[in-house]
Design a protein that fits this description.
Order of helices and strands: HHHHHEEHEEEE
Structural class: alpha+beta
Distance between the termini: 66 Å
CATH architecture of the largest domain: Roll
GO biological process, one term: negative regulation of DNA-templated transcription
Shape: globular
CATH superfamily of the largest domain: Hotdog Thioesterase
CATH topology of the largest domain: Thiol Ester Dehydrase, Chain A
InterPro entries: DeoR_HTH, HotDog_dom_sf, Transcription_factor_FapR, WH-like_DNA-bd_sf, WH_DNA-bd_sf
GO molecular function: DNA binding; DNA-binding transcription factor activity
Number of helices: 6
Strand order of the largest sheet: 1-2-4-5-6-3
Pfam family, one: HTH_DeoR
CATH class of the largest domain: Alpha Beta
Protein name: Transcription factor FapR
């Protein structure tokens, strides 16, 4: 087993580990142990030496650095941790499936949690004090299970007077597990297609 742990020289492993985290900031220590075939203690030591914080701290840093302030609802009402938010443009949230989110027998996530993550992110994207879901066309691509991490990525496709179209894709790893197209009504009447406010608006 020691041969497996020492498969890559330390410096080379640390370079690849830093690259893996840069490419996928949501990767967990457990996933890194499988990727590099080393113990979780080795991964933690590598991160420590490289000055890379653990997943939850990385998420906090990303959130602090790169999201606009949500206007349409309190941040705690967004289901999942908001990682990135560019109002009227795009957003990302992460939602970890825990025991309270699954059916007890199958350990499969209840669908309304997956929907709620996507729906609340779609609403949060709208740069308005009042934004409500008017319609949703959704598709559950595959079941999500206990301890899987759902990454929702939302994109504002268009904004017109009083209405926005938002598309959301939810991933587990590289696999799409949910897709939704949302129509969000909002209070502002001074927008034009594309999400920008008129130059003469307050």
């Amino acid at each position: 087993m020691v041969l497996v742990i020492e498969r890559l020289p330390k410096r080379q492993r640390q370079q690849q580990l830093a690259k893996a985290i840069e490419e996928n900031p949501f990767i967990t220590d457990e996933e890194l142990t499988k990727l590099f075939q080393v113990s979780i203690q080795t991964i933690r030591l590598d991160r420590l030496e490289l000055g890379i914080p653990e997943l939850r701290e990385r998420m906090k840093l990303m959130a602090e650095q790169s999201y606009d302030q949500v206007r349409s609802l309190p941040l705690h009402e967004v289901i999942g941790d908001v990682i990135d938010l560019q109002l009227d443009k795009s957003g990302i949230s992460m939602f970890e499936i825990r025991e309270e989110h699954v059916f007890s027998r199958t350990k499969i996530a209840r669908g309304h949690h997956i929907f709620s993550q996507a729906n609340s992110l779609a609403v949060a994207l709208i740069n308005d004090k009042v934004a409500l879901t008017a319609a949703a066309d959704i598709r559950f691509v595959r079941q999500v299970r206990l301890e899987e991490k759902c990454i929702a990525k939302a994109y504002v496709r268009s904004i017109s007077k009083g209405k926005a179209k938002v598309e959301v894709f939810t991933y587990v790893g590289d696999e799409v597990v949910f897709q939704g197209n949302f129509i969000i009504y909002h209070a502002s009447k001074d927008r034009h297609e594309g999400g920008e406010l008129h130059a003469d608006s307050d």
